[in-house]
Amino acid sequence: MTDVDADLVIIGGGPAGLTAGLYGARARLRTLLLEGHLPGGQVLITDWVENYPGYPDGITGVDLVRGMTEQAQRFGMAMETLKVDAVVQDGSLKIVSGEGREIRTHAVIIATGASPRKLGVPGEDQFFGKGISSCATCDGPFYKDRVVAAVGGGDTAVQESVFLTRFAGKVYLIHRRDRLRAEKILQERALANEKIEVLWDTVVTGVSGLTHVENIHIRNLKTGEARTLRADAFFVWIGIRPNADFIGDTVRRDDWGFILTDHLMATSVPGIFAAGDVRATPLRQIATAVGDGALAAWAAEHYIEQLVK
Ligand SMILES: Cc1cc2nc3c(=O)[nH]c(=O)nc-3n(C[C@H](O)[C@H](O)[C@H](O)COP(=O)(O)OP(=O)(O)OC[C@H]3O[C@@H](n4cnc5c(N)ncnc54)[C@H](O)[C@@H]3O)c2cc1C
């Protein structure tokens, strides 16, 4: 059999990749995880996780992913900091490359997750990092007793708006519809919170300020009324896009770019699997990412066994 640098390469060190690493290492595959930044993925910017089973009182995102990383490494998963920019086939091998490095492997699990979507309104790029953020854990504490605005209506927007009230004096939650999409328990908390004012049927048309966010320009979709909110920060939580540009059209993807898989996480290319938020799935959570990662590693193990027979 052709020599490889690792039996299994996992791209991305969020909960999906770390779980795949744990299962790959325990299957005694030479398992290498490549992470472009720090292991942990989106969980690193999640202040408090209260719906991951096994932690009845909740756990910080940092502690949860630290445990996942240590557990996978304890069983032998190797980890390197490397931003992958291509995966190509070479016969039955896969070549994973990035930053001038090439790694030959039998199987690849893509677990590169997703990133926040942008609104695409004037001022958004200009003020990113100058009052515009998608990370309440990172930036919320800067706005003690200040007025902040947020946009979105899903789990992240609602949960993180409640989190922002620990610091901010007032949080405007701007939502384009007349009801929220978030889990009911999260909605109840937000709607009962006196610091949160939901602006229903409203869209953001722009952000302005001098050197930092000062104004959020909004329009009511029902009345057509345009107005300007004074706010010191603006948090954008309107969904996510997959971190899958590097794979191009090597594997089949849906209309939004999420990778299509079967129930065993196999993509359209034998030996390439996908797990977690990067794949087309109806629920994107830590628990589902972990389940995907375990299945993907199991499927990769069986794929590799077939190769070496
Ligand atoms: C603010 C916030 C709060 C949330 N709260 C909860 C919650 O309370 N409960 C819950 O269950 N879920 C929550 N989620 C969702 C949850 O975090 C995600 O569903 C989960 O992290 C997905 O895991 P993943 O491993 O698929 O991807 P990610 O966590 O996105 O990890 C992907 C990793 O891949 C890396 N990567 C990307 N591209 C490359 C590349 N080219 N090369 C190398 N590495 C790369 C990234 O750096 C990242 O570390 C929250 C998300 C956010 C943003």
Notes on the protein architecture:
The chain is of the alpha/beta class. It has two domains: 6-115 and 240-307, FAD/NAD(P)-binding domain (3-Layer(bba) Sandwich); 118-236, FAD/NAD(P)-binding domain (3-Layer(bba) Sandwich). The chain contains six helices and 19 strands. The chain has helices at residues 15-26, 61-74, 136-139, 155-164, 184-192, 286-308, and strands at residues 6-11, 31-35, 48-49, 59-60, 78-81, 86-90, 93-98, 101-110, 114-116, 132-133, 147-151, 170-174, 196-199, 202-209, 213-220, 226-230, 233-236, 240-242, 272-274. Strands 1, 2, 5, 6, 7, 8 and 19 form a seven-stranded mixed beta sheet that branches. It has a five-stranded parallel beta sheet with strand order 10-17-11-12-13. The model has no long low-confidence stretch (mean pLDDT 96). The site of flavin-adenine dinucleotide has 37 residues, from helix 1, strand 2, helix 4 and helix 6.
Main beta sheet: 7 strands, mixed
Q: Look at the structure and name the CATH superfamily of the largest domain.
A: FAD/NAD(P)-binding domain
Could you estimate the helical fraction of the residues in percent? 10-25%
Order of helices and strands: EHEEEHEEEEEEHEHEHEEEEEEEH
- The rough form would be described as elongated
Q: Which distinct ligands sit in these coordinates?
A: flavin-adenine dinucleotide
Number of structural domains = 2
Number of helices: 6
Terminal residue distance: 9 Å
Computed Rg: 21 Å
pLDDT below 50 for ≥5 consecutive residues: which ranges? none
Structural category: alpha/beta
Please name the CATH topology of the largest domain: FAD/NAD(P)-binding domain
Q: What is the CATH C-level name of the largest domain?
A: Alpha Beta
